[in-house]
Amino acid sequence: GIAGYNYAAKIRDCYNAAKITGSANIGGIVGVNRDSATLSGSYNAGTVAGGDSNTGAVAGVNMDGTITNTYYLADTAAYGIGTGEGTATVKSSAEMSSGQMVADLAAGGETSPWTAGSGFYTYPMLSAPARAEAADETAASSPDSSSSQAEPPQAPPSQAAVEPTPPTAPTPPTQPQVIEGSGTAA
Fold first, then answer.
1. Which of residues 159 and 131 earns the better pLDDT score?
2. In what order do the strands lie in the sheet with 42-44?
């Protein structure tokens, strides 16, 4: 998933939509969550398959960590959390596509990066953080700005049309090349 091993760290506001397979400790978001690690505000929509009981749609194992406010799509794995305790709530496809799902993911966060999905992907998506233009302007106008490195001014875009260069064939090597495990070739 997103992380194989979460040791005493915080994972929040992420999702997985890919198929995850492995042999042990397999999770759609994290394989092993342990020792005061936290996982929250996240979901899994991808199929998760593993070779043992430590396989879960959200986490394979939760050992002395905290898992709250996490969700997974029905039928992606047999369990939300393979081994250990925590809160991983199963949702139908219709529930995952709802505005309520965006609100559920945002619960407990200071700000929410979640937006409703659109087009072919209707589950919640993460939005890019807003650019802090005010901070940039303040730094540029401060009296001490001469000591900071400013970016050089950008040249205006060219108005001339540029013709693409046609691709050229690669030049054959003049010296023999070693091909791993196969000896040499000319």
1. 131
2. 15-16, 42-44, 70-73, 88-91
Instruction: Give the pTM.
Output: 0.69
CA–CA separation, 129 vs 156, rounded Å? 27
**CA geometry: angle 116, 77, 84, nearest 5 deg:** 100
Do 70 and 58 contact (CB within 8 A), yes or no?
yes
In this structure, are residues 85 and 113 in contact, taking their beta carbons and an 8 Å threshold? no
Q: Where are the alpha helices (DSSP H) in 58-185?
A: 93-96, 99-106, 133-141
**8 Å CB contact between 27 and 60:** yes
pLDDT tens-place string over residues 147-158: 444 444 444 443
Using CA atoms, how far apart are residues 87 and 66, in angstroms rounded to an integer? 9
Give the least confident one: 51-55, 72-76, 127-131: 127-131
